[in-house]
Design brief:
Length: 361
């Protein structure tokens, strides 16, 4: 494949989130949708039509057919989490690069099987945590890394919650124990855990302790939960995730000299611009009636939505492997695995009666 040729994507399944990523593939300058497969060709045909797939897109009535197509370079896998290990492994064995929807696995043991197959077969792996690719994320990181303005990280808190309606809470795959058994922890908690690790330069905490009184549905799937994380140097973090609370998408990072806040880190309130807030050297006025200085708002513009930038970066990596013989980028598998380890630790702490669980890489 020539370096300038677009990466040809196959889509496994007709999930709702795949509509967003399909649009992203269409908008990315270095990617195209080559094939889509579902458990029935009728469903795949209707899905391709409804979502404006190119007329050249091949329509298949099985996932296997997509993986067997020699004109598919990479696959996007938005299937239920319980199916990830099967289809991501098979994709890697078929030499297809893997863009895997989160949560990436039910546990780190499953994820390790996926990552080992990707490494063995020389294919790129990336999880589909879109906010990682927004230019705002890099700008926020610049502030967190500035020892003169932010100082040393002392604490972080993240919330990702949204209110599921009756239909969602009864029928969505995220609340089905046989499809996405991690529930809100895997879906929303993944984002908050990733955010906390991001603030800590992906240094894993020493221990994770689940907060008491998580909420479950009748099938035993988590609908809301939280946890505290602690590091050897005294850093602490907490998160809350829920299907039962009004939408919140916050990161608050507190440093020895400054603070950072962002209120829409998962999906920016606007597609082309995203704000964040910083303050440094805060203190009370003489009568303690106000605080100075006031936080500064920073607006970060982007010509392409964050999901398009994700597809573009993934496709750049794939193109470099195919066109230049480069090795797969190991950053993304490493970050994925660390996130999964913390997810596993939260779940283990809940199951052990909210005892601290040590995190070992």
């Amino acid at each position: 494949m020539a370096e300038s040729s677009p990466v040809r994507f196959g889509i496994l399944g007709c999930a709702n989130i795949a509509r967003k990523v399909s649009r992203a593939i269409a908008l990315a300058p270095n990617a195209t949708i080559s094939a889509v497969g579902s458990r029935s060709i009728e469903k795949a045909t209707a899905y391709a039509k409804e979502n404006g797939y190119p007329s050249t897109t091949k329509i298949y009535g099985s996932y296997e057919a997509v993986l067997d197509d020699p004109e598919v370079d990479a696959v996007y896998v938005p299937l239920p989490t319980s199916l990830h290990v099967k289809w991501a492994v098979l994709a890697a064995q078929k030499k297809k690069h893997v863009l895997l929807e989160k949560p990436v696995a039910l546990n780190v043991k499953e994820l390790d099987v996926i990552l080992e197959e990707c490494e063995y077969n020389g294919v790129q792996y990336m999880d589909a945590t879109m906010w990682m690719h927004h230019p705002r994320t890099a700008k926020m990181k610049e502030f967190l890394s500035d020892s003169h303005r932010f100082g040393q990280l002392k604490s972080a808190h993240s919330t990702f919650a949204y209110l599921g309606d009756t239909e969602f809470l009864e029928n969505n795959i995220r609340v089905k124990s046989d499809l996405d058994a991690l529930g809100a922890l895997g879906d929303a908690g993944w984002y908050s855990i990733r955010a906390i690790l991001w603030t800590s330069d992906y240094e894993l905490p020493k221990t994770v302790t689940a907060l008491r009184d998580p909420e479950f549905n009748e099938a035993g799937v988590i609908l809301s939960c939280g946890a505290s994380l602690s590091w050897k140097d005294g850093r602490v973090a907490t998160f809350y995730c829920s299907f039962l609370a009004n939408m919140a998408m916050d990161i608050v990072a507190s440093g020895s000299k400054g603070n950072l806040r962002v209120h829409d880190f998962v999906i920016p309130f606007q597609e082309n611009v995203a704000p964040f807030y910083t303050v440094e050297g805060s203190w009370f006025d003489e009568l303690a009636t106000s605080i100075h200085p006031s936080p500064s708002e920073h607006q970060v513009n982007t010509d392409l939505p964050q999901e398009v930038l994700m597809v573009k970066e993934f496709s750049n990596l794939v193109g470099s492997i195919k066109g230049k013989g480069s090795k797969p980028e190991k950053k993304w598998p490493t970050i994925s695995r660390k996130t999964q380890l913390v997810v596993d630790a939260v779940k283990a702490s809940i199951e052990k009666g909210f005892e601290p669980v040590e995190v070992i890489y």
